[in-house]
Design brief:
With about 325 residues, this protein is an alpha/beta fold. It contains 16 helices and 9 strands. The mean pLDDT is about 95.
Length: about 325
């Protein structure tokens, strides 16, 4: 299956619709099976690799993804991360919003500092990818996940001021997003050089469903285009929310594949995304977390009939997702 997925990602026709994921799909069952503690696996390359591999080892799902949180790049830019040491199976968070008071401050910081790849956990993630490559690299596809430029801006910027700047100084916001795209392209390239087979751009906050089609077209789409141009192929763009009315904009981003969530009309998406691979869109909560074997299989039938190229969860898995439902997904 690894070879078939790689063929699919490279643009070749294959004889199946594989089930895998380029989003976070680590589970509590998998972490416990490895004797790991969740808050610790984000800070140790070996633990991160073991945690990421555990889903495959228990279920056979032929993919692994690192990092296992969305904040690696924000941390490299200076954000302080709360790893939730006192909360079992809860994902990290940025401790304090508004690291940069203005988008111009952010642009200045990126312009004056060229050592971001040596900061935070970026090298740790690269090491985890190398370990995964040695361990199960012949059996699975390895995904490196990065946030989109707008999502990253939301994590490190002062959101209230940023919305004002979007009205009063739109070029300054655009410049900041372009700088973030270049930074993220460096990170994604480092992950590929470490052994990742593809990169997923998880632009949750930059979805046109959340900021509106006009703001997406004006601010986010140009930055996503730049990021995708700079990243080595294959590149998957993952967006959240009901983007059915904005599919024509997503098609312009230049991604090799687009991953959509459970709120999107897949039949409409297939009609618009004729030249782009379409991945999706099992409901990670109602189907994969709360559902049973029958519900998972019914959902699989639905997405197959919509002619998706690969069956993906619509977003990151709930960490308590039962392994039995992931097996049913396969």
């Amino acid at each position: 299956m690894r070879e078939k997925i790689l063929d699919l990602l490279s643009g070749k026709k294959i004889d199946t619709q594989p089930a895998f994921s380029g989003l976070i799909h680590v589970t509590a069952e998998g972490i416990q099976s490895e004797g790991l503690i969740f808050h610790e696996i984000h800070k140790d390359a070996q633990m991160m690799a073991r945690g990421a591999a555990s889903t495959f080892k228990l279920s056979g799902l032929p993919s692994v993804v690192v990092p296992l949180d969305m904040y690696v790049e924000a941390e490299a830019l200076g954000a302080e991360i709360n790893f939730r040491e006192n909360r079992e199976f809860e994902f990290p968070q940025v401790k304090k919003a508004g690291l940069f008071e203005s988008v111009k401050d952010l642009t200045t910081e990126i312009t004056n500092n060229t050592e971001f790849l040596n900061k935070g956990r970026i090298k740790l993630v690269c090491k985890a990818i190398e370990l995964l490559k040695k361990d199960i690299g012949n059996e699975v596809v390895i995904g490196g996940m990065i946030p989109g430029p707008y999502t990253l801006l939301l994590l490190v910027g002062d959101v209230a001021k940023m919305f004002i700047e979007m009205k009063k100084e739109p070029q300054a916001v655009a410049d900041a997003l372009f700088h973030l795209s270049s930074f993220l392209a460096e990170v994604g390239t480092a992950y590929r050089n470490a052994g990742a087979d593809f990169i997923t751009i998880h632009d949750m906050g930059g979805s046109p469903a959340f900021i509106g089609p006009s703001k997406y077209e004006k601010f986010v789409l140009p930055a996503e285009k730049l990021l995708i141009e700079k990243l080595p192929k294959p590149r998957v763009l993952s967006v959240c929310g009901n983007v059915t009315k904005s599919l024509h904009l997503l098609a312009q981003a230049g991604a090799d594949a687009i991953s959509l969530d459970q709120t999107v009309d897949l039949a409409a998406a297939r009609m618009v995304l004729k030249d782009t691979l379409l991945f999706g869109n099992l409901d990670p909560i109602e189907t994969l977390y709360r559902g049973d074997n029958v519900q998972v299989r019914e959902a699989i039938t639905r997405v197959k009939e919509a002619r998706v190229d690969a069956i993906w969860p619509g977003c990151d898995l709930v960490i308590q997702t039962p392994i039995k439902n992931i097996k049913a997904m396969i």
